[in-house]
Automatic annotation (TrEMBL):
InterPro entries: LolA/LolB/LppX, OM_lipoprot_carrier_LolA-like. Residues 1-36 form the signal peptide. Keywords: Signal. Coiled coil: none annotated. This is Outer membrane lipoprotein carrier protein LolA. It comes from Flavobacterium cheongpyeongense.
Length: 230
């Protein structure tokens, strides 16, 4: 029989890949449609937007942490994501996700399985770059928060608070490097005390990418079971 901690841990792990992808895309794309509630915060986010739009592609190495002191849960994972336009490749927790602009390919080496699915724009749970563009378009209040000095870098935080009382997230803190206008980290605090943190360890832009960077090549997985959902 699973203990409460095991159940919470397993459920958390299942959600981590999806949450991580949401957060990673959010770091890059969500700023253009945030409604102005705090002029200083809006101005800073606009500067981030301008900087992000100037890049042809972006590569990020990150650390993802999940902590719940009450349940004694502490998990750390590393991953990376490459993004160009609405395409991406995410590597996280031993799983690779490729989105070529139309279909998502989820590659799980441990199970020797590839799941192929089309993106359903009507599915509220579907993760798409276009949805991340309007992630904070409504439902949040935000304003400037604390400033921290992290290894000589001035990090300005912006606090986002959900308007809905049903939202399980208490608040989100977005840390921005004031000099580079790049995202340093994103901290999400749940009402149940769980805190998830995504920290950018490496932020590279305009890297040389192969022509099939965002293309799934079936011949690379000859023994894998191909599960086509659509």
């Amino acid at each position: 029989m699973k203990t409460k901690i095991q159940e919470i841990t397993n459920n958390s792990i299942m959600k981590m890949t999806k949450k991580c992808l949401q957060m990673a895309i959010l770091l890059l794309l969500s700023f253009t449609s945030i409604q102005a509630q705090d002029k200083k915060a809006k101005d800073l986010l606009n500067q981030v937007t301008t900087k992000i739009k100037s890049y042809n592609n972006i590569s990020i190495d990150f650390k993802y942490s999940l902590n719940n002191a009450k349940e004694n849960i502490n998990q750390d994972s590393k991953g990376n994501v490459i993004m160009k336009g609405n395409q991406y490749v995410l590597n996280f927790m031993g799983v690779t996700k490729i989105f070529d602009g139309q279909k998502t390919y989820t590659i799980v080496p441990e199970d020797e399985e590839v799941t192929i699915s089309k993106v359903n724009e009507k599915d509220d749970n579907a993760i798409t770059p276009s949805k991340m563009l309007t992630f904070f378009n409504s439902g949040y209040k935000y304003n400037m928060d604390i400033v921290q000095n992290v290894k000589g870098r001035k990090i300005q935080y912006i606090k986002l608070v959900p308007n809905s009382g049903k939202d399980q997230r208490k608040e989100i803190l977005l840390g921005i490097d004031v000099q580079t206008k790049h995202i340093y980290n994103l901290i999400e605090t749940g009402k149940n005390g769980t805190k998830t943190t995504l920290t950018v360890n490496s932020f590279k832009t305009n890297q040389p990418l192969s022509k099939n960077q965002f293309t799934f090549v079936a011949s690379k997985y000859p023994k894998y079971y191909i599960n086509k959902l659509d």
